[in-house]
Amino acid sequence: MCRGKYYCAERGNRKLVENEFKVCKKCKRELPSNTDYFFKRKGELLNICKECKGHKFTNKLTHIPKDGYKFCVKCDRELPVDIKYFPPDDLCKDGLRNVCRECGKDGHFMENGYIPKKWWTKEEEEFLISVYPNYTCEELVEKFYPDKTSKQLWDKAWVLGISFKNDDAIQRANKQRSIKTSGENSYNYGKPMPEETKRKLSIAKKGKFTGEDSWWYGKKQSLEHRQKLSIYRKELGKWEGNKNPRHINPLKGELNGRWEGGIKELYYDLRDHLQEWKKSSMQECNYKCVLTGGEFDNVHHLYSFKNIMHEVFDELSLPLYQTIGEYSEEERDNIYKLLNDRHKYYGNGVCLCKSLHKLFHDTYNYFNNTPEQFKEFSNRYRNFEFDDLLDDKYKYNTILLKEVG
Fold this sequence. Notes:
By secondary structure, the protein is mostly helical. The chain has 14 helices and 10 strands. The chain folds into 5 domains: about 5-55, no CATH class; about 65-110, no CATH class; about 120-175, no CATH class; about 225-250; about 265-405, no CATH class.
């Protein structure tokens, strides 16, 4: 029997005594009978040592650190029990990990003045919600949160759903950002830019914010926003008097993208010869606006009149002159006849009041209009999308109330 064991007379069971020895059943070595050399199971040491089980002996019982210190399990250095040397870990008894920061993923000890991460309390979150919209992130750090960074505050505000700021705070933030990136603070200050670089930048930015790449593509600014822009520009005097682009470069004649060679007189003369088409369209609409059911001012072409007119002149192989008088009598008769035939082919128009007729063309332009566009416009009108752009008597919801009443 091993001398490392004896029977306890008081308890009537077998007990292991510290600082005694025990023989390993496998390697036959006499080793201290403690947990540095033998594993313990159900309160008793096993008969086979740790090395025979493929592990190493430990020195936990003899390797005792000083008060306020602990050993790193990797480098075995005796270090103070402090967050500066050990990262926090709630699973450990002392709340700090058993592997030091240098051996862990940090790779270094924390510097003096290190402030550990703290969780936000409910009161702190409520206070941040109340002050965040009124101050820039730099001002918040300076006044209320000296132990945090602007990025940390921005991230926390985003989580709380308060990423917006009022107009005054936005203006101050823009000024602070401008100071940081302009003048001597600019990265490119004093550095001449090569012509090749300027050319590449110009090519890269061309068309970047136009057409479908524009942020405003397919969107329409609200009436309130447009009024604010108008007041702001008037205060700046940006387009006042001779500064207006129309005075600097007036879009007249060939400079205007819609110029068609000065055919305005010809255009109106041809429209005057559509009386039969207009009467037929008005009779079909019962002499009322098809959307409001009230008085009408215009007969709207479901297919653009300009497109029909160009089709006529292309089919007759005639050039576009400024007036109808420049054509021969035979040419005029052919033009009028084919123009009326084309209108019969495309069908009648629809009666509209002036406000809705203008709103349609402002929305869908004056060219290449189709019946599908008018159908879409009608649906949008009945879904109240244009109510903020129309007077009360033209709003669809007001008309509905009158009909129900």
